[in-house]
Amino acid sequence: xxxxxxxxxxxxxxxxxxxxxxxxxxxxxxxxxxxxxxxxxxxxxxxxxxxxxxxxxxxxxxxxxxxxxxxxxxxxxxxxxxxxxxxxxxxxxxxxxxxxxxxxxxxxxxxxxxxxxxxxxxxxxxxxxxxxxxxxxxxxxxxxxxxxxxxxxx
Length: 154
What we know:
single chain, mainly alpha, 85% helix, elongated
């Protein structure tokens, strides 16, 4: 499991540097992450034969909704990048409000799907799944934190 998560980090670092544009970077990151994440989840979940089919069905549904919600974050990062050099108080405030809305929507989605995962898995495994999701997201967040500069203040 640790090897899979480490591999995701290395792949992201290596291949994303080769992306030609922001949109290329985003799509490449999503494609790589989708494939490697699924592998890491499969390794980390230790599902029984009876749990496999319902888990992957719900996993795919959740990740489709997650991707849609994460589009807010992509738009936020693009908006930040477009306004980085000419940041105003109003724009900074708008960006933060968008960030809080995104965080709220992600939390709502996770809560909703955690309830659904608990119906098909033991609660311990449902919790483990979201631990895995959180670990992978933390790696993505760390990569973004290294790439996105802080707002310049005067």
